[in-house]
Structure formats: structure tokens, C-alpha cells
Amino acid sequence: MVGLLALSLWVGIPALLNPAIPRTLQQRATVRMPYDEGRFLGQESPARAFTTSVVGIGPGHAEVIFGSATHNVVLRVLVENGGLAAGAFVVAMAVSIWLAIRSVVAASTPRDRASRAVAPAALLGSLATSVFIDSLHWRHLWFLVALCIWQGVSSRRDVEENNV
User: Fold this and answer.
1) 18 in a domain, yes or no?
2) Burial class of 16 by CB neighbour count within 10 A (0 to 12, 13 to 18, 19+)
3) Per the structure, how many domains does the chain have?
4) Phi/psi at 132 (nearest 5 deg)?
5) CB 3.0-4.6 Å disulfide test: which of 74, 75, 144, 146 passes with 123?
């Protein structure tokens, strides 16, 4: 513990004395950064494109056509693949979360409930960031979806086996 404190002081004090570091921290702590303007305005073009092509512009074409990412996973699926695909994406996310939450509620002990709550909480967190970051190709997003579905299906199977 003392070693960790000494290391923190050894690194922290010189860092705080460097005038560039507090300036950079203050700059980064602002609510809106200059690059946010273009990033959030960049969501308008894909949204308008959906109104002209309801079947989508094709997978992977949003960045090519609009010159930047959509920075929103549902908007990307909507623009690239159409309304039906976006609806299927939202339903798939909702069902996987519902299955996992159902298994949390069905857990018999508080410890089991807490351990089962991890997967849906992590998926909800990833989906919350997906409003601002295009996470369609994040491997861990799909791992969490699969984990939630598996958790819901396996807990249902356990309940059915114990009731028979």
C-alpha cells in the first residue's frame, strides 16, 4: 500500500506541475469539443438518406457515401440496411436483454441474482454508448448478446427441469 502511494506521488506531482497537463485536462473536460460539431451534424445526412431509400444504401456504405461514420448503431443499420433490418436489430437487442433479465428474476439466491445481472447490465451499457458510437462491429457487443440469450435459455431449461 505504501509503495502504491509512493508511486502515485512520484508520478502525480511532476505531472501536476507540468503546465500542459492541467490545461489539457481542462480542455478535455468541456461538454462539447470542436470535433463534436461535425460528428453530430454528420448524423443528419444519413437520417435524410433513409427517407429517400427505405431499403438502405447497402452494408458498409455509410462511411463511403457520407464521408464519416454515423456514430449511432441504430442509425447505421437503418441507413445501410433499411427499416426492417433496424427493427430486427432493436427487437434482437430487446429480446436478449429480456431473456437475461428474466433469468435474473428467476434466480433463487441473492448471489445468483447478482451474478446473472452482470450480462444484461453490460449489454445495456454497451447499447447506451451505441447512441454516440457506432458499435455494430464490436465483437464484445455480439458476445454480450449471445451471453444474454444463452443465460436466458439455460435458466429457463433449469427451471423446467426442476419443475418436472
Assistant:
1) yes
2) exposed
3) 1
4) -115, -15
5) 144
Q: Are 113 and 101 in contact (CB under 8 A)?
A: no
- CA atoms in the 13 A half-sphere facing the CB of 85: 18
The answer to whether the predicted template modeling score (pTM) of the entire model surpasses 0.85 is no
- Show the cell assigned to 79: 441507413
The C-alpha atoms of residue 157 and residue 163 are separated, in whole angstroms, by: 10
User: pLDDT by residue (tens digit) across 19-60?
Assistant: 777 777 777 666 666 666 666 666 666 666 666 667 888 888
Structure-block grid coordinates of residue 138: 464490436
CA distance linking residue 38 with residue 58, whole number of Å: 23
Enclosing H/E stretch for 64: helix 62-66
Considering the domain boundaries, does residue 1 fall inside one?
Answer: no
The residue range of the domain holding 102 is: 10-163
Cα–Cα distance, 79 to 85 (Å, whole number): 10
